[in-house]
Structures are given as structure tokens and as C-alpha cells.
Design a protein that fits this description.
The complex is a heterodimer.
Chain A: E1 2-13, E2 20-32, E3 36-40, H1 47-54, E4 62-67, E5 70-71, E6 79-82, H2 94-104, H3 109-122, H4 138-150, E7 156-160, H5 168-185, E8 188-193, H6 196-202, E9 205-209, E10 216-221, H7 233-251
Chain B: H1 4-21, H2 33-45, H3 54-85, H4 87-100, H5 109-116, H6 120-144, H7 148-156, H8 161-198, H9 206-215, H10 219-247
Helix pairs in contact in B: 2-10, 3-4, 3-6, 3-8, 3-9, 5-6, 6-8, 8-9, 8-10, 9-10
Classes of the chains: A alpha/beta, B mainly alpha.
The structure holds adenosine-5'-triphosphate and magnesium ion (MG).
Magnesium ion binds at residues 47-48, 84, 160 of chain A.
């Protein structure tokens, strides 16, 4: 399986005068099966827009997104998206939030319950299966959101700054958690962040975007061996490279 | 202290009683609290007019409200959901609704009597009008206030239209629907008594009971009747709130 993003360009028409706002400028990259690819870029550059187009929530102005060379059909559940602010349904408990995707797929109640319970256990949510999102910590909400997306078994998982609003300790914990999950299941993940450390710790490749309209400045492979040591000199080298690219773009 | 909040009302009541006993208040205009209590007893035991006792008046009034309210909810909630859901339908129907809404329910009494005659149907129709618009408008605004993110989450989880309606639209607007029902039943209840004052004269009904008490100069029974109307209003509201907190547990 491969995900090809080719020549993706997006303009919005601005609300005040209808003049075009250019957000994405011929974005082009490929994600191979089982890869963990991160997208970093300055705030407001168009990262969320890029993911929304890949997820089919927004139409591109030009270019296309192909899965195995074919256009993605919106009703097949091939692309999963973990939203920037969890977006859990407040009226559903942990268990009900996790299983909603299976409800839509008409999986019988018993089967979806037990599938959701498996996620509750392996995601460290035991004891909170009947709690409403209001009663969960930020880290737990994020785990529920990830479980809700994974349970439908999408071919590609998109994540939009999933750990952006967490404190640094919870953030590190969840990075490790996601990494273990990925190493176990080898899901194909496209991960948006503006945290370079996070991208270096997690991914196989980092796509570096410019400020708006986003262009690809660089696609940097992260070569350091796993399991990674955040402070190793190899990791530092990649981090320096990415940070320098971003800095040059800022000064240019 | 919990009892402290009852202190002031009790003191005022005592003061009122003392002033009445000293003949500082004209009792033919404002009977003493104790006299009102006796009036209440007379309403319960003898009835007004004699033989028509208070519990039956209350039951008949509640019966009318129940019908009017039920009809308003059964029509207003589905219509509100659809109007919130479809911009087209909303644009189409809003002018009609804005035209009818400002007409006070009581202004419908003459035409209601012409259409339905004096009695149960007229009363229920007036209550229906009083309860319908708050329910409808709150349902619409409930749908419109749902975070658009939730619709997108549903979309990425492959929701069909039906799923969106039942799993996002309804639960998302439920808190607002309950607000509408509480306001609606409150207005319905107020409207009822007025409707019974004027047009809807059958043997039973709290409004009718009070008017009869006025005809024969019994201010004690008028005030006792008013108190009963207020208390039942509180009771209805409490019952609906209890319903609400059972159904909407995620807000607790
Ligand atoms: N529907 C829209 N209509 C008009 N402009 C939009 C729309 N959606 C996004 N934009 C604009 O596009 C630009 C990029 O937004 P986007 O949310 O994709 O950036 P981002 O990189 O995800 O930002 P952040 O780091 O804050 O999450 C912003 O200037 C935003 O205002
Ligand atoms: Mg964003």
C-alpha cells in the first residue's frame, strides 16, 4: 500500500473580500506501507488543511491524493483521522466513543463491545470505560480518540498534533505509547506536529513545510536506530538539520 | 446554613399574620396566611363551586396541559431537528414561523373557540401554541449549536446520513431540547390558567375555579388557588429536570 499526495494545492476564498488565500502550494510526497511520517511546519502554515484534504473533508484546488494509485472513495473507511482537539462525543462514554465506528459498520453489539473492551484494556483506560469525556484527563481523552480511530482499522492513520495540548510528561508518555503501538501493528501513520523533537523521536521521515502557503522545504529521513534515545548525537543531528531548514525559511 | 434561606420568608409570613390580626391589612382584599390556609381546606373538602373539589380542578388542568404539551413536543422536536438539519427547509419555513410566533397564544382564544368549541380541545390548542414555539426554536438552535467538528468526526468514521441524525444531531441538541420543553411547559401552564379564565368554561379547571371564587367574593380561595397553580408549576419543572438529569448524564 502507498499513499501518494501529488501536486496538492489549495486556495480558500477569504471571507471579508473573497480574495484568494493560498494555503498549500503543490505538495508532493509519498508514504509507504507501515511507515511513520511526520509533517512539521510553522503554526498556521496549512498542516490541518493538508490532513483534511487527505481525509476527504475538504476538496483540493488542484492535485490529488491516491491510495495504491486510485482515488480514495470517501465511504470506505480507508483513512482515519485523529483530530487536533480530541473531538470526543461528550454524550458518549469511553466505551461508546471507541465503538462508534463499528456501530456505523453495523458490527453486532456483542462483537463491538468486546473489541472496544480490548482497546480499553490495552490503552490503559480500565476503570474509565463508563466515564464521560468530561471526567477524563487530557492524556486519556487522547487515547480514547486514538482508539476510536484505530478500531475501524483504516489503511492510513492521520494525526493532527495529537499531543499538542498535553503537558510535557504526559506528552512523552503518549509518544512512547504510540510508538509501541506502531511497532506492534505497523500501521501507516501520517503525523502532524510543530514539535521537531517529537517528529525526530517518532518518525521514519520528516516532511518540512514552509510558512503559508506551505511548500515542501525538505523531506528528511530519520536514520537513527530504534529504540531511540532522544539525546543521542544522531537524533541531535537530524533535529539540527530540520531546525536549520525551518530557520532559514523564516529568515528568507 | 440551609435553614437560613427559609428564615426571611417565615418572618415575613409571621409579620403578615400579625398585621392581619391587628386589622392593619384589610382582610377582604388580602386575607391572612391562616385564612388562606383555611380557604385551601375549603377548596379541598367542600370545593368551589361546592362539590367541585380542588384535586379534580388540578387534574383537569394538568390533563389539558399534558395534551397541549405532548402535541407541541411531538411536532416541535422533529420539525426543529429537520429545520436545524436542512438549511433549505429552514429558509423556507422561517418567514411563516416568524409571522405566527409573535401572536400571543391568548389572542388565539376567540378563533380557537370558533374552531373547536368551548372545552378541552380549545384549551389544549391554546397550550399547544404556547409550548410549541419555545420547543421548536430551542430545538433548532440546539442543532445549530452542535460543534461542526462532530459532524466531521462522524464523516471520517463513515457515518451514513441516518447515523449522523441519530448519533450526532439528536444527542447533540438534546440539552437545548430540554430547555425548550421546560420553557414550553411553563408557558403552557401559564397560558392554561388564562385560557380557563376566559373562554374555556367547563365544570373543572384551576382558572375556572378561581374565577368562580371571585364571583362570590372569596379572596382566601382565590389566593389559595393561585398558590396551588404556582406549586404545580414548580412541580412540573422539577419533574422535567429530574427527567433531564436522568437522560443527559454527560453534563452532570
Ligand atoms: N475554511 C477555511 N476558510 C478560509 N481560510 C481557512 C479555512 N481553513 C483554514 N483557513 C486558513 O488557512 C490557513 C492554514 O490553516 P491550517 O489550520 O491548515 O494551519 P495549521 O498549520 O494547521 O495551523 P496550526 O499550527 O495553528 O494548527 C490559516 O491561515 C487559516 O486561517
Ligand atoms: Mg492545525
Amino acid at each position: 500500500m502507498t499513499l501518494d499526495v501529488s501536486g496538492l494545492t489549495k486556495h480558500f476564498s477569504q471571507e471579508k473580500d473573497g480574495s484568494p488565500l493560498s494555503v498549500l502550494d503543490s505538495i508532493h510526497f509519498r508514504v509507504q506501507e507501515g511507515q511513520f511520517v511526520s509533517i512539521v511546519g510553522p503554526s498556521g502554515c496549512g498542516k490541518t488543511t493538508l490532513l483534511r484534504i487527505i481525509a476527504g473533508l475538504e476538496n483540493p484546488s488542484a492535485g490529488q491524493v491516491l491510495l495504491d494509485g486510485r482515488e480514495i472513495s470517501p465511504d470506505r473507511g480507508q483513512i482515519g483521522l485523529v483530530f487536533q482537539d480530541y473531538a470526543l462525543f461528550p454524550w458518549r462514554t469511553t466505551l461508546q466513543n471507541i465503538e462508534i465506528g463499528l456501530e456505523m459498520m453495523k458490527v453486532p453489539k456483542k462483537r463491538r463491545r468486546s473489541a472496544a473492551m480490548d482497546y480499553v484494556r490495552s490503552f490503559g483506560l480500565t476503570g474509565f470505560e463508563h466515564a464521560y469525556p468530561k471526567a477524563l484527563s487530557g492524556g486519556m481523552k487522547q487515547r480514547v480518540a486514538i482508539a476510536r480511530t484505530l478500531i475501524t482499522n483504516p489503511k492510513v492513520v492521520l494525526m493532527d498534533e495529537p499531543f499538542g495540548s498535553l503537558d510535557s510528561q504526559t506528552r512523552n508518555e503518549l509518544q512512547q505509547f504510540l510508538l509501541n503501538l506502531w511497532e506492534e501493528h505497523r500501521k501507516t501513520i501520517l503525523f502532524v506536529t510543530h514539535n521537531v523533537d517529537e517528529a525526530v523521536f517518532l518518525s521514519d521521515h520528516i516532511v518540512v513545510l514552509s510558512k503559508r502557503p506551505a511548500r515542501i522545504l525538505k523531506t528528511a529521513p530519520v536514520t537513527c536506530a530504534r529504540p531511540r534515545d532522544r539525546t543521542s548525537s544522531e537524533c541531535n543531528a537530524v533535529r539540527r538539520e530540520v531546525l536549520n531548514t525551518l530557520k532559514h525559511a523564516r529568515l528568507a | 446554613m440551609n435553614w437560613a434561606r427559609y428564615l426571611l420568608p417565615l418572618l415575613l409570613l409571621a409579620l403578615w399574620q400579625v398585621l392581619s390580626s391587628l386589622k392593619a391589612i384589610p382582610v377582604h382584599l388580602l386575607p391572612s396566611p391562616f385564612a388562606i390556609l383555611l380557604g385551601f381546606r375549603d377548596l379541598m373538602l367542600t370545593g368551589m363551586p361546592p362539590g367541585y373539589r380542588l384535586p379534580y380542578h388540578a387534574l383537569y388542568s394538568l390533563y389539558r396541559v399534558a395534551w397541549g404539551f405532548l402535541a407541541a413536543a411531538l411536532l416541535g422536536i422533529p420539525l426543529g431537528l429537520l429545520m436545524g438539519w436542512s438549511d433549505r427547509l429552514r429558509d423556507l419555513t422561517t418567514p411563516i414561523i416568524e409571522l405566527i410566533r409573535p401572536i400571543p397564544p391568548l389572542a388565539w382564544i376567540p378563533i380557537a373557540i370558533l374552531w373547536f368549541g368551548i372545552g378541552m380541545k380549545s384549551a389544549a390548542f391554546i397550550i399547544f401554541l404556547g409550548a410549541f414555539f419555545p420547543i421548536l426554536l430551542n430545538t433548532i438552535s440546539g442543532v445549530l449549536s452542535i460543534n461542526p467538528l462532530f459532524f466531521e468526526v462522524a464523516q471520517t468514521l463513515n457515518a451514513k446520513k441516518r447515523d449522523v441524525f441519530f448519533k450526532v444531531l439528536i444527542p447533540g441538541s438534546l440539552p437545548s431540547i430540554f430547555v425548550g420543553m421546560r420553557i414550553g411547559v411553563g408557558i403552557g401552564w401559564m397560558t392554561l390558567v388564562a385560557a380557563e379564565f376566559t373562554g374555556v368554561k367547563t365544570g373543572y379547571g384551576l382558572g375556572y375555579m378561581i374565577m368562580t371564587a371571585r364571583d362570590i367574593q372569596r379572596p382566601d380561595e382565590i389566593l389559595a388557588g393561585m398558590l396551588v397553580i404556582g406549586l404545580i408549576g414548580i412541580l412540573i419543572n422539577t419533574a422535567l429536570k429530574a427527567c433531564e438529569s436522568r437522560i443527559i448524564r454527560w453534563n452532570a
